[in-house]
Amino acid sequence: MSVLEPLGTMPNTDYLRMTNLSPFPTARVASIGSGRRQYSQTQSPDPHRLFLACQFFANCKNGQKREMPTPINAPVNGFPVSDLFEIRETISAGRGVIALKDIPKGTRLLETSTLAAWVIYDEYVKEVCAQCFAYDRGKVWKVRDSAKGIVFCSEKCKTQWQHKIPEDQSIARDEIQKLLRKKRKTRDPANEIDRHQPSHEEVDRHWDETERMAEEIRAYRTTSEPTKKQRRTLQAVQDKFKEFQDPYLMWYMLEGLVNPISNPVNWTCLEQLIADASTYKEVGNMMRNTEAYLMLLAVVPETLLPWITESAVRSLHAHSSHNVFGLRALDEGGEEGDSGSECFGYGLWPHASYWNHSCAPNVQKQRSGRTWKFWANRDILKDEELCISYLGGDERSLDDIERRAQLKETWGFECGCSKCIEVDLDIVSEKLESILDLLGETVLLPGV
């Protein structure tokens, strides 16, 4: 924990800037990807950053020494720290985790419970504990909170959940669940939105239009005499919900946007991750995100409205892309021969999102409740990169082509790990040998 020395009764503003706590960042990009539009320091402060700064001010009140809330195994700037590894730029895969010393097999590397956002898929909400994510082969848990559409594996988990959820967030969940109970239409496939990937310009235009509607909704929610236009806008959003097919997206968005109110350091940790510079995968995905944003504005209590913003929604999406962990039953242990398990949701653990992928990983991972644990599964040399597998056990039943295709489809990269390179070299050697055979020459290739 870092103990801060205040300057008189005022906080150290240099420290605020250094630790990314300033509510007025100098280049706060509103348009993720294109970076075309930026907020200057004269714009309204980001409520997520403002909350962090206000907490800092409170800690410095009366010139007393106070401790900033610091996640275990990480400093206030959000990066995980250890005497075993450091976060460093790699040659071909952006940032990675590099060993600072020789690490024996079995060494514990990291444990983290810093959870920035999470969601359980609709079809599993009665089978997965909302507090500890316990899942028992499809068993329906009996302890539940029907008003919020969630269940628990025990009364203890329910009590822990209720204790940590503020009243306005609890009300927000109640209101969203009321919407979910209403009969919804099935979207006609004939009217399905085209599946092309939108350009940065298309994304900006669509968000501009969305934000105009958002301002009308905010005005309706906060004024005693709303206009007809504001009423029509709100009604249009409520009608749209009847065809909204991805309510889990609303839950994830709500969790991510209001989490910093009670866990302010989580947003700092989230924004330290590399944001996905690409646009949405397809137009439909972009529209579902903006629809979920408008629907949240229409139902959450007024106290939460300052936290539901365009910039926060886009930042959450950009930093979640390629960084979330799937929630699986076998995350909590499984036999070596298992080929994976059903994925019943996903979550964003910022401290756990710095490992790069390898099809021959040297780091093993396991989830216990809300905590991810990582340890060395073989002896690791100093300066060697520490890698996990992104495939959650699925790679055990996939051949080389299928495995690499899944990585490309899901995470958007061509795998160049040692295992894949070895396969490539074998293919090249075989092709070269075939060519030489056709030429009537006999050449002994290295390693053949």
Written overview of the protein:
The protein is an alpha+beta fold and 448 residues long. Among the domains are: 3-67, no CATH class; 117-320, no CATH class; 417-448. It contains 12 helices and 16 strands. The strands form 6 sheets. It has a 4-stranded mixed beta sheet with strand order 5-6-16-13, with no helix packed on it. Helix 5 packs across helix 6 (228-240), helix 5 packs parallel to helix 9 (283-299) and helix 6 crosses helix 9 (283-299). The radius of gyration is 24 Å and the shape is globular. The model is unreliable at 1-45, 47-76 and 334-340 (pLDDT under 50).
- What is the 3D shape? globular
**Percent range for β-strand residues:** 5-15%
The count of strands amounts to 16
Helix % is 25-40%
Radius of gyration: 24 Å
Decide which structural class fits the backbone: alpha+beta
Give the termini separation. Answer: 56 Å
User: Which stretches are low in confidence, meaning pLDDT under 50 for 5 or more residues running?
Assistant: 1-45, 47-76, 334-340
- The order of strands across the largest sheet is 5-6-16-13
Number of distinct helices: 12
Average of the residue pLDDT scores? 77
**Major sheet attributes:** 4 strands, mixed
List SSEs in N-to-C order.
EHEEHEEEEEEEHHHHHHHHEEEEEEHH
